[in-house]
Amino acid sequence: MHRRDGDERVDFFVHVCHWQGEPINTEPEKCDELRWANVDELPDNVIPYVRKAIQNHRDGIPFDELGW
After folding, report:
1. pLDDT of residue 13
2. CA–CA dist 1, 49 (Å, integer)
3. What string of DSSP letters covers 16-51?
4. What is the pLDDT of residues 9-49, one digit of tens each?
């Protein structure tokens, strides 16, 4: 996702098919929580551009722009 939020950013998202272990929050000052969630029941505080990227994936949209 090419986005503008004060400055210009490019974010890459990947679809992971298999995972072992638990995710670890290595930046607790930047992230409230890190946990597995059902994609149909995402928490209210999911960052808007992340929510948009998830929806784009579900809709088959491989690239998007936000904030331009």
Report:
1. 93
2. 8
3. -S---S----S-TTT-S------GGG--TTS-HHHH
4. 999 999 888 989 888 999 999 888 888 889 999 999 898 99
pLDDT at 62: 94
CA distance 10 to 12: 7
Determine the residue type at 37: A
| 21 CB-contact burial (10 Å; exposed 0-12 / middle 13-18 / buried 19+) | exposed
Q: CB 53: neighbour CB atoms within 10 A?
A: 19
Cβ contact 53:11 at 8 Å: yes
pTM: 0.78
Average pLDDT, the chain: 91
What's at 12, amino acid-wise? F
| Tally of CA atoms within 13 A in the half-sphere of 18 that contains its CB | 0
